[in-house]
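Researcher: Let's continue the batch. This sequence belongs to Acidic leucine-rich nuclear phosphoprotein 32 family member, and it's 265 residues. Same format as the previous ones, please.
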Amino acid sequence: MEMKKRLTLELRNKKPAEVKELVLDNCRSDDGKIVGLSSDFENLEFLSMININLLSVSNLPKLNKLRKLELSDNRISGGLEVLAERTPNLTHLNLSGNKIKDINTLEPLKKLPNLHSLDLFNCEVTMLINYRESVFALLPQLTYLDGFDVDDQEAPDSDPEADGDGLDDEYEENGDEGEEDDDDEEDELDEEVIDDEEEDDDDLDAEEEEDGVDDEEEEDDEDGEDEEEDEGDEGAFCSCTGVSSGNLICMLTSRKHLLLEVQFT
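Model: Same format as before. Here are the structure tokens for Acidic leucine-rich nuclear phosphoprotein 32 family member:
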């Protein structure tokens, strides 16, 4: 996509003066120069033009509020005095992957008093002997070169949102909230289980009581039946004699003894 079209899309119906951040990465520049960008972007603080085949920054407009400029993976080999003239408040400059070969090419950056971070990864200049010492000597305002200070201490993350730290914090907060929700759910589940167990115990006790009552009733019924049978036996009558069974047995026994006495006599 051409740089002008990309710029129009990035504006999203905003006025240039309303834009603070502008990303034009991977678009196509005309003849290796910046096209469409003007000084109307007076409040622009962050500008990224990575891999757009830039050969020069000569067409960069004056952007007094610009603080961070990303120009990596282009073909810039010099002409950095434009940056000192048109971006006087620049603090971060990334020239990684360009065609910078000599330390002297960086000399115009001395006029950027607020510049404290410079990246030159994958530039030929980094292969020079005493490269780091030479750059820090040339640009005393620098704090970090290629992400490390003069004592080889790594630079802290300057842009948490860009590095993803903001997302991590949000994930942790959501994670904490999620854990609290999980704990609440577990507590509610435990209470439900306890309630269910108590209900089961109550049901079991009620069933046992009912069983006990049923057993007692069954025993009472059995005892009653046995007593009725006994009474029935005692109250039975012989149909042939009209005498009760108990009296009949006594009469038979008496007759048996009588017969035995008659035989012995």
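Researcher: Any comment?
Model: The first strand starts at residue 21 and ends at 23.
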